[in-house]
Amino acid sequence: MRLTPRSNLCFSLTLLLFVWSMPAKAADPEPVDLVVYGGTSAGIAAAVQAKRMGKSVIVIEPSQRVGGLTTGGLGQTDIGNKAAIGGIAREFYEDISSYYQDAAAWKFQRAEEYRGGGQSKTAAGEAAMWTFEPSAALSIYQDWIERDGIRVDYGKRLDRSSLMMTRSLPARIIAIRMESGETYRARMFIDATYEGDLLAAAGVSYTIGREANEQYGETLNGVQTKMAIHHQLRKGIDPYVVPGDSSSGLLPHIDPEGPGEEGAADHRVQAYCFRMCLTDHPKNRIPFHKPEGYQPLWYELMLRNYEAGENAAPWINSGMPNRKTDTNNRLGFSTDFIGQNYDYPEATYEEREAIVAEHRLYQQGLMWTLANHPRIPENVRKQVSRWGMCKDEFEAGNGWQDQLYIREARRMVGEYVMTQGNCQGLAVEDPIGLAAYTMDSHNQQRYVDEKGQVRNEGDVQVGGFPPYGISYRSLVPKRREVSNLLVPVCLSASHIAFGSIRMEPVFMVLGQTSATAAAMAIDDRVAVQDVDYDRLAKCLVEDEQVLSYTGPKPKPGIDPKSLDGIVVDNSQAKTEGGWMTSSSSGNRVGLNYFHDNDASKGECVAVYQAELKQPGRYHVNLLWPVHSNRATNASVKITDAAGEHHEVRVNQRDAQSGGRAKLGEFEFGTNAIVEVRNADSDGYVIADAVQFILAEGRRD
């Protein structure tokens, strides 16, 4: 994590951002009310709102395609709770539904054959649809642009070395110049890019990487080896090119400096990938090919992972209309190119193009390997090879898009920083939209652990909270820096909070909000930091934005401190295997619990170790949320002071137990160990909490 020095030095800011004396080129556009740099979903929503408020607007898109990830393959909308989405964002998903009402939209499948893969309509009679093809999303945005007469200038990249700005602080951006020489003048600016290039060029404070937990009083930020539960490699994988020979060097893409101190800040950003749009329709399928420049050693770790016991295809292959998919990362070695994007946020355009090309080479090689390599299990090869790229999507790239999934890059450090506390209940005083997704970070590095095996680090998935408000102040720079810039994508948030906020419909919401605030700042002749919040909120509500959540909230978990004795929660347990995190049951202990997804039998182990105040005999209880899908024979092993193992089978389906099983009374020293395992279980095994109560008559 770093805060750019230039953002704190007025002298440096003045030197870096100077007023040009040269006149504008004849071809330069006339000054407008608002310039939106970045034609992402946030940028298009902002432009639509600006037009509705009677403002002139230009969208500058560095590529040749608007919509960012929404038109770039992310058709399985990530949001969590769709009740959080209103305004222009909801209009988009309603237009998606209308698009698919036309029989002509169904070319490779009948409408009645399609199943939405968990993202179906929110409620009976609702008009929105949440899954779609990239081409459908692009068609809707192009219709909006034509309908509203929005000017979009394509293929224009910001000259990041110089802006036209006032010298006094807080500065105002007068104009921005493109590499091609055009100058765009406006009263207000919005940076709607995934990279935050405009905010950085304007001298606004920002950060890259993970903050230390201590910086904002968080627990899920920084290095997170203890959270390494999901998307993890199998145990015992050798890290060296020649197994057992350290002199042969590490396999590619293993970080020799990892993992770092638990909870500490670092420079790493979560992994990127392409959200592939695949099809199994023979008339539309392009088989996976072996790319030129294929690097076989890049996939050796994956092959060893399969040889260590992995047996499934490493993807989430979500169904889209017309027998297509939105395909995303899954398991320990997949489409995420872990650790190969650290330089991307600050890189030059040419360097970014090289990083994108390397990601594409990696992913093309990955898919060919999965479909063809003899060391891949036959069932996986058979499953993967029936799919391929789509002839009718991203035709210029033979089915491959240019839009890389930039999960995070720069993040502004503005008037207010959204943190884990906001996600989990700390309300803001000026909400202008809601976020509703789990705090979700993909893996950020591969490293060699103390056992000499390869592990992934950085994956965090913690939810269980209702939709929460995003502060208006998180969209604006610090008051002393820039007075006419809003940032709806690279907004001011810690790494882990951004992991919850960073969803496309939320970016649309924040784009609309930013344009509304920009229009009000123009009308009132004030800085964006001084926009009247009450008037802004009133306007947003009138435009059907959702500023507060009034629906049902998940039941809070039981506070471990409220229970007798010593309670070890699952968050303190050491785990092996493919445990998953959930908080859907209210009678859990703490924030969440682990479950084995009724899979990977014999591989999931959760080890609870308690530090006891004194030796003696203790009652040991297992605590968990009961449900009808639970195992009736979850295995629990207790190790006593003599090292003897005691196995108890627990019926976690039994509602009469109340989610509490007495495992017995055991003699311990100052430490106690209890293990929950899923071997031979007949349902979902839950690892939540273990309670140790000193037996009567043995207390000091």
Topology, please?
Elements: E1 2-3, H1 10-16, E2 32-37, H2 41-52, E3 57-61, H3 87-99, H4 134-148, E4 151-154, E5 158-165, E6 173-178, E7 183-191, H5 197-201, E8 206-208, H6 213-216, E9 240-242, E10 245-250, E11 278-279, E12 285-287, H7 300-307, E13 315-320, E14 324-329, H8 349-372, H9 378-385, E15 388-390, E16 411-412, H10 420-423, E17 431-435, E18 439-441, E19 445-448, E20 454-457, E21 460-462, E22 468-471, E23 485-486, H11 495-501, H12 504-524, H13 533-542, E24 566-569, E25 574-576, E26 580-582, E27 593-595, E28 605-611, E29 616-623, E30 634-639, E31 645-650, E32 660-668, E33 671-677, E34 686-687, E35 689-694
Helix pairs in contact: 2-4, 2-12, 3-4, 3-12, 8-9
Describe this structure in words.
With 700 residues, the chain is α+β, with helices and mostly antiparallel strands. The chain has 13 helices and 35 strands. α2 packs parallel to α4 (134-148) and α3 (87-99) packs across α12 (504-524). The longest helix has 24 residues, at 349-372. It is globular, with a radius of gyration of 27 Å. The model is unreliable at 4-24 and 118-124 (pLDDT under 50).
